[in-house]
Design goal:
It comes from Halolactibacillus miurensis. With about 375 residues, this protein is of the alpha+beta class. Helix content is about 30%, strand content about 25%. It has 11 helices and 20 strands. A 6-stranded mixed β-sheet has the order 6-7-5-8-9-10, sandwiched between helices. Strands 12-13-18-16-15-19 form a 6-stranded antiparallel beta barrel. Strand 8, helix 7 and strand 9 form a beta-alpha-beta unit. Helix 1 packs across helix 2. The structure holds guanosine-5'-diphosphate and magnesium ion. The site of guanosine-5'-diphosphate (GDP) has 16 residues, from helix 5. Guanosine-5'-diphosphate binds next to helix 5.
C-alpha cells in the first residue's frame, strides 16, 4: 500500500498528470498534481487505463494474524502466567531465576536435567504452573516488542535493597509500563547488612509504584534470592496477580505463539524455542514460524524431555523448520502442510522483496498488471 500523488500515478501509468486530473474530475474528484490519492482512487484510475493494482491480495495473505481464529469465550480456560524478571545489573535476576528453578523444576521430575530453552515452567505446591522467561532483563521486551510480540503477562522488578533504584531499574519500569504489564517488586538482598527496603519503596513512589502498605496497589516482596528467602511468597503473589488478570486460553485448537530464541544446530538444523500462547502444539503439526515453515519434527520441554504435545503457556524447543526464525517472530499452526508451505513461501518472498525494494524504486510492472 502507501499513497501516490497524481503526478506519481501519472508517471507509473505513463500518462501526463493533466490526463489523470481529467479522469479524476469525471469521477467526481477535484484534484491537483500534488494531491495524494487513496488506494480506491488509484485502483479506479488504473482501471480507466486498463490496469489493475496487483499484489495487495498476496501481501495480505502473508499477515499471519488473520489465520488465528478468535476463540469463543466459553472455550477459554485459565492458563499459567508468563513472567519476565527485570532489573538493574547485579541486583540478582539470574540468582532469582536459578533459585526458583532449582527449588521447583526438578520436584517430581526424577532425574530431570534442566535444559536451556529460553524459558522454564514450574509447578507450585498448590499445583499451579508458572512460566518464567529466562532471557533476563530487557531482551524479552526490546527484541520481542520491536517485532510486535508480547509474551509477558507479569514483570518481576528486582531491586537490590542495598543499592536502590538504578538506571536499568527505571528502564525496566518503562518497558513494563509501555507494555501495560503489571509489576511485582522483588526487594532483593534483604540478607545484606546495608539493606534498606524503605528507601527502595520511597524511590519507587516516583514511578507510581506505591506499596500497599503506603496506600498504593503495587506488591512488594522482600527477599533474598541467594538464600532462597521469600521465593514462596513471590510465587504466591504471582499467582494472585495472574488471577486478577484472568489469563485464559483455549487448549482445544491449533497452536499459535511466539519464538523465544532460535539457532542453527550442526546436527539438528534449525532449532527454535517457542512459547505456546494459545492452543496445543503437537509433533507433526504443519507450522509457519516468522518467514520460515515446516512440520514439528521433534519437541522437547525445559527438562530436555521429549514430548508429543504442549498446551498454553508452555515453552518448548522444536526442530523441523526449513530455516532459522528470529526471537519475537510469531508462529501459527495450519491444518495442512500445503497451506503452511504456501504461506511460508509467500512470507519468504515478501521478505526478499522488501529487502530489494529498499534499493530499487517501484516500477510499473511491480505495481500494475494488465487486465
Ligand atoms: P543479575 O545481574 O541481576 O543477573 O545479578 P546476579 O544474579 O548475577 O547477582 C549479582 C551478584 O549478587 C551475585 O554475586 C549474586 O550472588 C549476588 N546476589 C544475588 N542475590 C543476592 C541476595 O539475595 N543476597 C546477596 N547477599 N547477594 C545476592
Ligand atoms: Mg544476570
Amino acid at each position: 500500500s502507501g499513497t501516490l500523488n497524481v503526478t506519481e500515478l501519472g508517471e507509473l501509468l505513463g500518462k501526463p498528470a493533466n490526463d489523470i486530473i481529467k479522469k479524476l474530475m469525471f469521477a467526481g474528484v477535484m484534484a491537483n498534481k500534488n494531491q495524494d490519492l487513496d488506494e480506491d482512487t488509484i485502483e479506479l484510475i488504473a482501471g480507466e487505463y486498463g490496469m489493475a493494482v496487483k499484489k495487495e491480495v498476496e501481501v495480505e495473505k502473508t499477515d499471519l494474524t488473520q489465520y488465528i481464529e478468535i476463540d469463543d469465550e466459553k472455550d477459554l480456560k485459565e492458563r499459567p502466567p508468563v513472567v519476565t524478571i527485570m532489573g538493574h545489573v547485579d541486583h540478582g535476576k539470574t540468582t532469582l531465576l536459578d533459585s526458583i528453578r532449582n527449588t521447583r523444576v526438578t520436584a517430581g521430575e526424577a532425574g530431570g536435567i534442566t535444559q536451556h530453552i529460553g524459558a522454564y515452567q514450574i509447578r507450585t505446591d498448590a499445583g499451579k504452573k508458572i512460566t518464567f522467561l529466562d532471557t533476563p532483563g530487557h531482551a524479552a521486551f526490546t527484541s520481542m516488542r520491536s517485532r510486535g510480540a508480547q509474551v509477558t503477562d507479569i514483570a518481576i522488578l528486582v531491586v537490590a535493597a542495598d543499592d536502590g533504584v538504578m538506571p536499568q531499574t527505571v528502564e525496566a519500569i518503562n518497558h513494563a509500563k509501555a507494555a501495560e504489564v503489571p509489576i511485582i517488586v522483588a526487594v532483593n538482598k534483604m540478607d545484606k547488612e546495608a539493606a534498606n527496603p524503605d528507601r527502595v519503596m520511597q524511590e519507587l513512589t516516583e514511578y507510581e509504584l506505591i506499596s500497599e502498605d503506603w496506600g498504593g496497589d503495587t506488591i512488594f516482596v522482600p527477599m533474598s534470592a541467594l538464600q532462597g528467602e521469600g521465593i514462596e511468597e513471590l510465587l504466591e503473589m504471582i499467582l494472585l496477580v495472574a488471577e486478577v488478570e484472568e489469563l485464559k486460553a483455549n487448549a482445544n485448537r491449533r497452536a499459535n505463539g511466539t519464538v523465544i530464541e532460535a539457532e542453527l544446530d550442526k546436527g539438528r538444523g534449525a532449532v527454535a524455542s517457542l512459547l505456546v500462547q494459545n492452543g496445543t502444539l503437537r509433533v507433526g503439526d504443519p507450522i509457519v514460524v516468522g518467514n520460515t515453515f515446516g512440520r514439528v519434527r521433534a519437541m522437547v520441554n525445559d527438562l530436555g524431555k521429549r514430548i508429543k504435545k504442549a498446551g498454553p503457556s508452555t515453552p518448548v524447543e522444536i526442530t523441523g523448520l526449513s530455516n532459522v526464525p528470529q526471537a519475537g517472530d510469531r508462529f501459527v499452526v495450519f491444518e495442512d502442510e500445503k497451506t503452511a508451505r504456501q504461506i511460508g513461501e509467500l512470507r519468504q518472498q515478501k521478505q526478499l522483496e522488501e529487502r530489494r525494494g529498499e534499493q530499487s524504486k517501484v516500477s510499473l510492472e511491480d505495481l500494475f498488471e494488465k487486465i
